[in-house]
Specification:
The chain has 3 domains: 3-54 and 301-443, no CATH class; 60-109 and 267-293, Alpha-Beta Plaits, CATH 3.30.70; 110-263, no CATH class. It is 51% helix and 18% strand. The chain has helices at residues 3-16, 18-55, 69-79, 91-98, 160-166, 237-242, 249-255, 277-286, 295-337, 339-347, 352-395, 408-425, 427-434, 438-443; strands at 61-66, 103-108, 111-118, 121-130, 144-145, 155-159, 177-187, 202-217, 233-236, 267-271, 289-293. The protein starts with a helix and ends with a helix.
């Protein structure tokens, strides 16, 4: 029997029992819809988490600190090499890291305690320098005002909690000025009497700086690993460097008797591509510094989502199993109703293989139609979930987002699975129909 004849005969048989076959196809579509909806939820949540984390710049960042003496001693014991002096994280180290392949920028984590004078009141908080690349961070999405107009301008962006302390209407602060009081590290004059011509250390003196408020942001951009806490007053990084503010590591330099060698507490190294973070991190460790990134943490997060998606797939597939029982029932009933037709086909020369293929075509047709319809229904369910979620977020003044996502591979996978399940459900009815004796079939009433 030709393929065209099989298709025409299968189509006619499906149309004759239209209601029953439609209900069976609808059962398949419901199973596919539940599968697509659950998978879209899992994939959507994974895309949301990955996008949010990627936009913070954490996936392409390496955080570098000086290697502690204890860590250097342990490394020396493991390698059998005498321990080397701890390398300072100074400007020379910064330039070497910036010269590494795939590195796009290296900047220090500058955070320092300050006192703000505004409208006759004083407020103690922490300031942080912000690199120009932070403009692309998700932290600045939806900010009130604007980003810094230059790398070293006298401008500031306030974190929302600080802005609320300064005014009951945070947005009204934009365009106004405040005075920043901070501690500046100033080298002592050279002592000519010792004949060395070098200063003996540094002094800490109070300084003031007037800044114009240009924006208010909800959250602080992801920075380094400063121990002073979250920066609530943000200034351009180059401005923060020119202020020469006293850092916590200044005391460490003083204790080590290296007060004139300015070093950094930590550096952030940004790489042009997250997959290349590991190689750059290894190179920095070989230079004698401690370095870590969030690549390992992201792998663990990916594992969690893989398990989550697997369970969603299993639960979503249960509806398809129920739908497959409906296909078996429909085709078995078709065999009982069409025994004489099957007998006529065999008497006219149709082989067992032809009869088996006929029932497979009918089962496959219901699977394909049900799969396509199920994808449409599943997508509509996903849109409804997004709509409801955004209403919930809007009521709580939170940014709107999509928690479900349907990718093309999910569409193809759902249709293929529906077709395979339908064909699998048609194995028993097809085999039973092919095994009918044509003489007994023709005598059936």
């Amino acid at each position: 029997m030709k393929g065209r004849d099989l298709a025409e005969l299968a189509g006619r048989n499906l149309r004759e029992a239209l209601l029953r076959n439609s209900l069976t196809t609808l059962g398949i579509s419901v199973g596919v819809a539940s599968l697509v909806a659950m998978l879209s939820l899992g994939v959507g949540l994974q895309d949301l988490a990955t996008d949010r984390l990627a936009r913070t710049g954490l996936f392409d960042a390496i955080f570098v600190t000086p290697r502690s003496t204890a860590a250097a001693y342990r490394a020396a014991q493991q390698s059998g090499v005498p321990p080397q002096p701890t390398k300072p994280l100074d400007e020379d180290a910064r330039e070497k890291m910036a010269a590494l392949p795939n590195v796009v920028e290296v900047y220090p984590d500058i955070r320092f305690p300050i006192e703000i004078h505004y409208n006759g009141n004083s407020y103690a908080t922490v300031a942080a320098g912000v690199a120009p690349s932070a403009r692309k961070d998700g932290a600045f999405d939806g900010m009130k005002g604007s980003f810094f107009s230059g790398p070293d301008v006298d401008e500031t962006v306030l974190q929302i909690d600080l802005a609320r302390e300064l005014s009951d209407h945070p947005e009204s602060l934009i365009g106004k000025t405040l005075t920043l009081r901070y501690a500046e590290r100033e080298p002592l004059p050279a002592d000519a009497a010792d004949g060395k011509g070098a200063s003996d250390g540094f002094s800490i003196i109070p300084k003031e700086k007037t800044l114009r408020i240009i924006g208010v942001v909800e959250t602080e951009p992801a920075g380094g690993i400063g121990s002073l806490g979250r920066g609530r007053l943000l200034i351009p990084l180059e401005l923060a460097e020119t202020l020469r503010t006293a850092q916590t590591n200044d005391l460490r330099d003083l204790v080590r008797n290296t007060p004139n060698d300015r070093s950094y507490e930590s550096l952030t190294v940004r790489v042009n591509d997250p997959p290349k973070v590991k190689s750059v991190e290894d190179s920095i460790k070989q230079m004698g510094y401690s370095a870590f990134s969030l690549i390992d943490a992201s792998k663990s997060l990916g594992l969690v989502f893989e398990i989550f998606d697997m369970f969603l797939f299993i639960f979503g597939s249960l509806a398809l199993v129920v739908a497959s029982l409906g296909i078996i029932n429909t085709l078995v009933m078709a065999i009982l109703e069409r025994r004489r037709e099957i007998g006529v086909l065999k008497a006219l020369g149709a082989s067992d293989r032809d009869v088996r293929r006929l029932f497979f075509v009918e089962a496959g047709a219901m699977g394909i139609v049900g799969g396509v319809l199920g994808v449409v229904i599943g997508r509509l369910i996903g849109l409804a979930i997004n709509f409801g979620t955004n209403i919930y977020l809007k009521q709580r003044n939170l940014p709107q987002t999509n928690v479900t996502a349907v990718h093309w591979w999910m569409v193809g996978l759902a249709i293929v699975i529906a077709t395979l399940v339908s064909l699998g459900a048609g194995i028993y009815p097809a085999s039973r129909a092919a095994g009918l004796d044509p003489v007994e079939a023709l005598r059936y009433e």
